[in-house]
Design a protein that fits this description.
By secondary structure, the chain is mainly β. The protein is built from two helices and eleven strands, in the order H-H-E-E-E-E-E-E-E-E-E-E-E. The protein has a ten-stranded antiparallel beta barrel with strand order 1-2-3-4-6-7-8-9-10-11. It starts with a helix and ends with a strand.
Length: about 190
């Protein structure tokens, strides 16, 4: 439990520096995990025509300590409108994890579906599905996949309340498929720009 409190302390101390690197930052809490993340909106900084998300997750599901660094990118150049105010498009992600005493590194591909907020509606939502086959796993993982559904509700002072459900499954060599993190989460994020 001490490691969990250290993670919270580091997360709080890093928050002021996130304004230099990101358009928004936040944290998410679930029953057995915590995540901090930084988002860059459409940018010309690193990767053109992408929406970027960088995160660090600490989970106690299925073993006392699991850590994951991830970076994923919505490829906006290939996004397509769906009906009036919806977008869908390809998404790629990379994962580095310490999971059940194994190191996992993978590249994933998938799709996202997004409904941006409108002036009269203060919420938006995002759904994403990513899969990393064995070909793109560089260590002991056979495959991994993740699913997320998230609703963001606008709050005063450029803040958002985040609610959702996430499932991350990893299949290690010679082991059954196991959950890195599964369940409902709640979070809070702040926009800087």
């Amino acid at each position: 439990m001490l490691n969990f409190y250290r993670f919270i302390l580091i997360s709080v101390l890093m928050t002021p520096f996130s304004q230099l690197m990101a358009d928004s930052a936040g944290f998410m809490l679930a029953a057995d995990s915590v995540e901090i993340y930084y988002n860059n909106a459409i940018t010309e900084k690193l990767f053109k025509n992408t929406r970027q998300n960088y995160s660090f997750m600490y989970s106690q599901e299925s073993s006392p300590r699991n850590l994951m660094l991830s970076a994923d990118f919505e490829l906006l150049k290939y996004s397509r409108p769906l009906k009036t105010n919806y977008l869908w498009g390809p998404k790629i992600g990379t994962y580095l994890a310490d999971y059940n005493e194994s190191s996992v590194a993978a590249v994933s591909g998938g799709v996202y579906f997004r409904r941006p907020a409108k002036d009269q509606k203060k919420f938006d939502f995002l759904t994403e599905l990513l899969y990393a086959p064995q070909i793109t796993s560089f260590t002991t993982a056979e495959y991994m996949w993740s699913f997320k559904f998230q609703v963001n509700y606008a709050l005063p002072d450029n803040a958002e309340l985040n609610l959702g459900y996430r499932k991350i499954m990893i299949k290690l060599d010679d082991q059954p498929v196991d959950s890195f993190e599964t369940g409902v989460f709640v979070g809070l994020s702040a926009r800087f720009k």
